[in-house]
Structures are given as C-alpha cells and as structure tokens.
Design a protein that fits this description.
- With 262 residues, the protein is mainly alpha-helical.
- Helix content is 46%, strand content 10%.
- It contains eleven helices and five strands.
- The protein has helices at residues 10-18, 46-56, 68-86, 100-110, 122-128, 136-142, 156-162, 169-196, 216-220, 225-231, 234-242, and strands at residues 26-28, 63-65, 118-121, 147-154, 204-211.
- Helix 2 runs antiparallel to helix 11, helix 3 (68-86) crosses helix 4 and helix 5 (122-128) packs across helix 8.
- The two termini are 40 Å apart.
C-alpha cells in the first residue's frame, strides 16, 4: 500500500491471512519499480513504503515485510548489464522490466522448498485472468494455481466513515452492486483456473470481514489528522507527517513553528 491502510484495509487483510493455519508466513512485498513507466516516480520512495509497512504490520504474527522486489530487480538488472557487456552494447536501465512471473521465479530459485501462494484483490485477479499482465499464464503455472483472491466483505459502518467525504447513499448502493458483479466474475474465473490445474487447483476466494471502502488513493488526498487516524495506524500517520509525504509535502515546515529556540 502507498500508504498501507489500517484495520479497514491492508492491516485487516494481513491480520486475517496471518490467522489462517494453511500459511506458515505472510510475506508483504512492496513494489520496487512499477511495470508501467507512467506510474513511476508517483509513489512514495521504496524505503518509505517499506518503513510504513513495517510500522503498520508490526506485531501481527507470522508477518514479514520483505525487500525482495528490490533484490529481484537488481538481480535481473545486473544480469542484463553483463549480457550487454558481452555484446559490447550500452544498456538502458529504464528498459528493464521485471514482472510478477520474474519475481516468482526469483523467489522459487532462492527458496525451492517453499510453496508460494499469491494473494490479490478481486480487480487484480480479473486483470490477471484476462491475460493483461506480462507473462500472465506463467504466473498461474509457476504457482500451480495457488491464488488467494481477497473479497471485501464490507462493514457498512466502516464504509460510511471511510466515504464521509462525499459519497452519498446512491453511490454507495451502486458500489455494492458493482461488488456483487465482481464477486460473480471472480467465482467463474476461479472455476476456470482450477480446471486448468485439475486436482491440484487450489485457487479460491476468501471473504475478509470488517473491511471498508478505504483506499490508499483516498488517504493520499488529505492531511486531516482526524480522518487519517481513523484510516491508518497512528505510527503510519506520524511517519507521513515527519517525512512530509503525500499532502504533507505541501507544508514541509509542519510543526516546526512549535519548536523552541535557544
């Protein structure tokens, strides 16, 4: 998450996953370098996102925040540099694209005894199974169909709070109808994925309770402390303020007026 949201979002999802007996570890891997050039540079820095995830998920059992996306990218970058040197060619580092399939291959080569399951939201799953990703089918085959699709079982009270800044009853109803349509799509696509892998097909959806419609996009749009502390952990809010992230970047002298002068 950019930033990771609280109990109504990322923290709620990670907490739920950590409570499932089928997993020995829940690994959080912030994106290092976005596949689409148009989105690069618009995120908080990788180090800031790692720090915020570490604060948000601190104390949740079995959870580890990992820098594997960065080490994976650097691995493929170094390999491409060596290949370019052998051909006596210059390498444009911006041309290096490392996707999810590459990451899975990298993780599996370093941890061959681990059976990885990939967790994602419903919209992401629909994109994946519409073959919109680079090497979409490789992602499925590398994981032997081990996918866990997160369905937001909305807490209506939490949703009302999260959308208090402009969402009316009509738009909330429309959103619920959209969610029902997405859930139907997900179920049909899960059946098809599991058919691809026969008896080994283990792709499934899980309904995580008490989630809201809060998103990182909504969070990035405000610096209202009252709202942010409802949506994020206090530690993440403090980190955003202290490091002038998102809307706090508009006033990088925040709180300096209260400092005492000798």
């Amino acid at each position: 998450g950019d930033p990771p949201t609280g109990r109504g979002g990322h923290v709620g999802i990670v907490t739920y996953l950590s409570g499932l007996d089928e997993f020995d570890e829940v690994r959080v891997l912030p994106v290092y370098r976005h596949m689409f050039g148009s989105k690069r540079g618009k995120q908080a820095s990788f180090d800031d996102r790692i720090a915020m995830c570490s604060l948000a998920f601190k104390g949740i059992p079995k959870v580890r925040v990992s820098c594997s996306e960065r080490t994976c990218f650097n691995f493929y970058l170094k390999r491409a540099q060596l290949e370019a040197q052998e051909r006596n060619e210059a390498l444009d580092a911006s041309s290096i694209r490392v996707g999810t399939a590459d990451l899975i291959e990298y993780l599996q080569s370093n941890e061959p005894s681990v059976d990885f399951t990939f967790s994602m939201g419903a919209d992401t799953f629909i994109d994946l199974t519409s073959w919109k990703w680079r090497r979409s089918k490789d992602v499925l085959s590398l994981l032997d169909g081990r996918l866990l699709v997160i369905h937001r079982a909305m807490d209506h009270n939490a949703t009302a709070t999260a959308t208090a800044t402009g969402c009316n009853e009509s738009s909330s109803k429309t959103k619920n109808e959209e969610n029902e349509g997405i859930a139907e799509q997900v179920e049909l696509r899960l059946l098809k994925v599991n058919e691809m892998f026969g008896d080994n097909g283990v792709a499934k959806a899980v309904h995580v309770p008490h989630l809201s419609s809060i998103s990182s996009t909504i969070v990035r749009s405000t610096k209202d402390i009252g709202q942010l502390t409802q949506w994020l952990s206090n530690e993440v809010v403090a980190y955003m303020k202290d490091n002038c992230l998102y809307r706090f970047s508009e006033d990088n002298s925040f709180d300096k007026g209260d400092e005492k002068k000798d």
